[in-house]
Amino acid sequence: LEYEPYNLEPYPEDFDDRNDTSRVESFDSVVTRLGEGTRCLRSGVWEEEEDDVDLWMEKTRLQGLYTLTRKSMSLTVGTRETFMETLCETIRLLCRILQKSDETLTQNFRDAFSSHVYMLYSFMFITESHAANASNKTQKPSHALLRQRQTCTDTMLQAISSMSKCKNILWQRGVLDETVWLLPCRSAYYLLERSSGVQARKAVCGDLAMQIIAKAVENDDAPLTPVVASLMDLMHSHEHMASLTAEICGKLCASDHLSKELLLEYGRLDGTGDLRTTGVKNVALFAAELAKVNPLYVFQQLPHLLPQFNAEAYHFRSALVTSLCHILHYMHQKESEVTERSARVGDAEEEDRETSTTRDFSKSRDKLFDLLTERVFDTSSFTRSAVLKAWVSLASNKALPKERFLPATRMAMDRLNDKTVLVRKQAMQLLTVLLENNPFMGNLDPKPYRDSLKQLYRGVIDNLPADIKEAQSLAKTEQEGDVADVNTEEVEQAALAAVMDEVNGWTADQELTDEQQQYKNKVKALQFTQATLEFIDMFEDATTNLEGMILSANASDVTEALRFFVQARYFQLPCAVSGIKRSLALMWSGEQAIRQEV
After folding, report:
1. DSSP character for 141?
2. Which of 341, 334, 328, 443 shows the shortest CA–CA distance to 396?
3. Is residue 171 a contact partner of residue 153, using CB atoms and an 8 Å limit?
4. At what angle do helices 405-415 and 421-436 cross, to 10 degrees?
5. Cα–Cα distances in Å, from 284 out to 25, 190, 242, 288, 325?
6. pLDDT (tens digit, 9 = 90+) per residue, 411-447?
7. Residues 371-400: tens digit of each pLDDT
8. Among 401, 501, 526, 530, whose CB has the most other CB atoms within 10 angstroms?
9. 412 to 29, 386, 409, 434: CA distances (angstroms)
């Protein structure tokens, strides 16, 4: 501003700088002169009289604004607060006139509006920079500073809201001036940098700062590119910015434009460079944070994110695993709501629509579970641990489908042999959670299940449907001429598989006879018993590995194994007895955590 075309000076020409007293009086005089400029605005009308034009755009007023803004930290507390209140009041009055106007305003008004918003931005930048330096010296912010920050940020929010709502009135043909438009955003960025906790976020008006950014991008033709670039840079530099940016996108923005652009930029990152830097980790967190607040939109944009599973930095792969977990939680919640709503409504058309929605979710959910299962073999132990942690979250929150319990148990058993302590710990936690939330019974003693299995098996085989029974007899007849050892068991297993497929195809809409209904119940009971025994046998087959965890040299392995055997004993698994006996010797362990767990 000190160069062409403004040629402003550091101080007005009549500024008296002889001593401190005259200096204070000169500053007060400049503030008073600025306050007089609001008289034409308090009526709520922008006057186009010559006197008012001179009053607003004369060099003396601009010089006063510039001097007070530039030397704001040299002002006394009272003078600085008066100047801030005068500046904010002027901007609020300009916003009120802008919102009441029906026609495109003149260049005079645009210049006045722009200059005052710019001066407020500069004032905030100077005072916040000074406050940041003071906070580094462990000085607490004063009440005057907090009040000043609240007023300035609220005024900036009002300014960007008015510009967003009335851009066709402020600028000809609605072609906005990005330099002016982004000034409130630039002030918001500086505040968000320091919103690293609940108390700090409240102290620096972090919520208002996020609202400023959300307002700035709510229009379809808003300049997204500089906002996206700034947010990506902030996320790279500050760990807490990923969650704040996700909150802006998922909760405050009226549209998904900002979310889309950020996810596209996220998908284009190569994930290379110095992987030891925290910047890669900070940016990678964004996908998981956005999936937490807006899982449906992240699910829709997954094709743009999946290439990051091939990124060199494991942080991206781990973040995507966490994102899949949030999406699966969302799908489970929606399926539960759909099922409850369809049962309550009773409308046939509505039920068909809900059934179609559930079916679509089921297909997508199965693909996501398969993708989550594949990542358990990731090259990074941190990503493998994140995968198992996601399974723990799904199982503990009842979001794991019944058909996924057995594969998840096998996967956890396999990861007990992982070379990394962190992965083994998550695997033990997953086994414990799967046991606690198993879809079978509270008693997993295998003896009653084996006895029941024989009766159910014979009941199903002896009462096969006519077509399957005929096919079974034909298969036995064809094998009579073969080697003496006729594989009757294989024929029965094939017949059993066929009857299970047929019974599973019977829908609730079909009218079944009493015999068919009873037979269906027997088949379902047989399937349940077989799955229960398979679940129990998995733990029995892994007894050696589970007991080996007790003998591990790592305290984390031992404590997790002890917790598992406590739960196993509660469910009466046979492996629990030997595991608890072996753990009694740990009462004399040198590790206090192990002794307390025993």
Report:
1. P
2. 328
3. no
4. 150
5. 54, 22, 8, 8, 15
6. 999 998 889 989 999 999 999 999 888 888 778 888 8
7. 999 999 999 999 999 999 999 999 999 999
8. 526
9. 76, 13, 5, 10
